Amino acid sequence: MRAGRQPGVIELAGEVRSAGIARDFVREKLGCDHAVLDTVTLLVSEVVTNAVVHSDSRNGGTITMTIADSGDFVHVDVVDAGGDEVPQVRDEEFGEGGRGLRIVQALASGWGVRQYATDRTVWFQVKY
């Protein structure tokens, strides 16, 4: 994807295999020589996996991912069906789960969660 181009959008099934499909989509849209390809691909994998595992999308729903390159940063939105808990970084350093958003927090230049009545968006940006 060249800087400033319209975002790419993909709808994914609420299934584990969707994380791999999302990674392939990122590589296709950004191109193999993009400055932040590896970081964006890793973060997409974490956020989509969280949506599949922790949101109501896992019950036959969908996840929509949007990616845009502003020329200064890549912005990604991952929209799922929401759930009982709001995604957050876990303080349990050695816990069995919760590392995904720690990775997002460490590598993204910004990230957050927007919770709505019918869905939720986890977004992040990676500067280059």
From TrEMBL:
<feature type="domain" description="Histidine kinase/HSP90-like ATPase">
    <location>
        <begin position="22"/>
        <end position="122"/>
    </location>
</feature>
<keyword id="KW-0547">Nucleotide-binding</keyword>
<dbReference type="InterPro" id="IPR036890">
    <property type="entry name" value="HATPase_C_sf"/>
</dbReference>
<dbReference type="InterPro" id="IPR003594">
    <property type="entry name" value="HATPase_dom"/>
</dbReference>
<dbReference type="Pfam" id="PF13581">
    <property type="entry name" value="HATPase_c_2"/>
</dbReference>
<dbReference type="InterPro" id="IPR050267">
    <property type="entry name" value="Anti-sigma-factor_SerPK"/>
</dbReference>
<keyword id="KW-0418">Kinase</keyword>
<keyword id="KW-0723">Serine/threonine-protein kinase</keyword>
<protein>
    <submittedName>
        <fullName>ATP-binding protein</fullName>
    </submittedName>
</protein>
<keyword id="KW-0067">ATP-binding</keyword>
<dbReference type="GO" id="GO:0005524">
    <property type="term" value="F:ATP binding"/>
</dbReference>
<keyword id="KW-0808">Transferase</keyword>
